[in-house]
Design brief:
This protein is mainly alpha-helical and 241 residues long. It has one domain. The chain is 36% helix and 7% strand. The chain is built from seven helices and four strands, in the order βαααβββαααα. The strands form two sheets. Strands 1-2 form a two-stranded antiparallel sheet. Strands 3-4 form a two-stranded antiparallel ribbon. A hairpin with a 5-residue loop joins strand 3 and strand 4. The protein is elongated. InterPro entries: Helitron_helicase-like (IPR025476). This is Helitron helicase-like domain-containing protein. Pfam families: Helitron_like_N.
Length: 241
Amino acid sequence: MPPKFAQIYIVDPEMQQRAERRRGIFADLESGTLLDIEQMMADHNPFAKQFLNYAEKLRADRAEGKDVVDLVYRLHEKKSNPRTHNLPTVSEVGATLIEDGNLDKPRDILLWAKDHRLLRLFESNPMYDPLQYPLLLPHGESGWTFTNEYADNIERRSKREMSLREHVAYRLFQKVGDESALHQGGRLFQQYCVDQRAKCEQEQLRWIASHQAELRADQYRGVQDARLNEATTVLNEGEVF
């Protein structure tokens, strides 16, 4: 498939300020804490050993004298249509999907491996969540995929596969005695929730789009049954009262 640019935008009014604080070498953050987090990820996160993060790539590019792109995130108020393009008036995290949610194609995500290979990843891959949210899932806990199943001790299920919505509900449910890093993530946790909701919506819409034949057949049979039972007539169908 051809490469795609950003297919989903996470919108956070405070993102620009946070991005500006994190530029350079994190001058206003506790360097000791950052080193502890980096060491923790290197020791316990399996993906940190396989893939480069952006900071590592920037350092390597600078060391080799390569041109480094300085990314800046800004929200601009649209003056021409203020009623539809105003900046957010409350500090909430949201998402914007483009191209009708890209129902025909999954999100296009590229990973840069430490052996300099580029790998493509989709949001239905179980590695998507731990790679997108390494601080919320520090041990690389797998996300959802189509083959997820219920535990063997769960009975009376009409199906074995776990849906994306059910997987997200399990993740968001706080367990007794479980000090979940996920639920202590602050605004990053809000972004995770918004992202998962967007994934659920896209997955449901993809299912509807790919099952149109069955859905329309259902409606057609219902109309035919009603006509055969003389419960209504063709003339009355769609009549405005």
